[in-house]
Design goal:
It is a single chain. With 193 residues, the chain is of the alpha+beta class. The chain has one domain: 3-Layer(aba) Sandwich (NADH Oxidase), CATH 3.40.109. The protein has 7 helices and 4 strands. It starts with 8 loop residues before the first helix and ends in a 13-residue tail after the last helix.
Length: 193
Amino acid sequence: MSRNAFSILPVIEKRYSLRAFADRPVEREKILTCIEAARLAPSAENSQPWRFVVLDDPELKKAFGEAVFSGVYRMTRFALSAPVLIVILAKLDIVANRIGRWIQGTQYYLLDIGIAGEHLVLQAQALGLGTCWIGWFDAKKALQFLRLSKGLRPCAILAMGYPKFPERMPSRKRKKLDEILIWNPKLPQKEEK
């Protein structure tokens, strides 16, 4: 597969879910660049349902993590070692999302959040940062802790920081293109009368 000078494939190929973070703060300018990348993401009817809460104060981040990564969510406590936690929230009850859910049965805000979040993590990778998407956390406790309105739903938490072992990139098995790609499937044959 050819890669031209404008390809983002090298960034995508290097990105992985980081779980071992260096004890080094992340510059606010880099965090803002990542949030800006997310802000520019497309969304259904340009509804832009995403909202971001950045936690980089160590005491606040620790208290938040102890609340949302407890009990059955304990396995995600590794995120407490990240210097930054970014809570991605969705603003609910946007007309485009209600119509999409009603007509298509699709929660479009989740697609929108996924696109914005992926913009964010790829920008982080391009800046030399590592991230890990976390979906396993206590969303109710997150809302209570952050004292946010009920019109917002925590969808994911991104742990962010510099890799503790930058030279160690885990190998990842991915399916081959021919296992996931279908070119021009045949049209169904019309029955003759």
